[in-house]
UniProtKB/TrEMBL annotation:
Residues 1-21 are annotated as: Disordered. GO terms for molecular function: DNA binding; DNA-binding transcription factor activity. Residues 26-160 form the HTH marR-type domain. This is DNA-binding transcriptional regulator, MarR family.
Length: 166
């Protein structure tokens, strides 16, 4: 029996990445990041729809507006915070306006700038939905255990490096 076959017969894997403690290949890491994002996003979106009649994107937009000074944010600020395109933020804010959760207003200094302002109904909805969102996300992320700080730090470094330079 040749030497490599002898090693395989003793249970040594052909692929060194299969050995415990060996760093995963970039494709594996990327797949896990995409899977986790997709699964958590779908789960949280579903809970927000069921319990609060709002999408995750709508909730995130409401939260950004609520956290802005005077509960008022420009459309470009909302788009930037959520990573949405101009049509994407327009569509999201239009749904929030139709639901009576925000008002769309022209800027005081520059009439070309549109702002989204929280309504009292929007304030109530974002407050109630935030509890559902935050509790579910916290519950899912407890599975990181003692690795939470390390994972958060690593993802922050990757996010910072990947930030688009304009």
């Amino acid at each position: 029996m040749p030497r490599s076959e002898d090693a395989l017969a003793r249970g040594i894997p052909r692929d060194p990445a299969a050995l415990p403690g060996v760093a995963p290949r970039p494709a594996e890491t990327w797949l896990r990041i995409v899977q986790v994002h997709d699964r958590i996003t779908r789960r949280v979106d579903s809970a927000l729809h069921r319990q609060h009649d709002i999408s995750l994107t709508g909730f995130e937009a409401l939260r950004r507006i609520a956290e802005s000074p005077g509960e008022r944010a420009s459309m470009s600020e909302v788009a930037e915070a959520l990573g949405l395109s101009r049509p994407g933020v327009t569509s999201t804010v239009s749904r929030l306006v139709a639901d009576g959760l925000v008002l769309r207003e022209r800027g005081d200094a520059d009439r070309r700038v549109l702002h989204a302002t929280l309504t009292p109904a929007g304030r109530t909805r974002v407050t109630e939905a935030a509890r559902t969102h935050d509790e579910l996300v916290a519950h899912l992320l407890t599975l990181l255990g003692d690795d939470a700080a390390v994972v958060t730090d690593a993802l922050a470094r990757v996010s910072s490096a990947a930030r688009s330079r304009r």
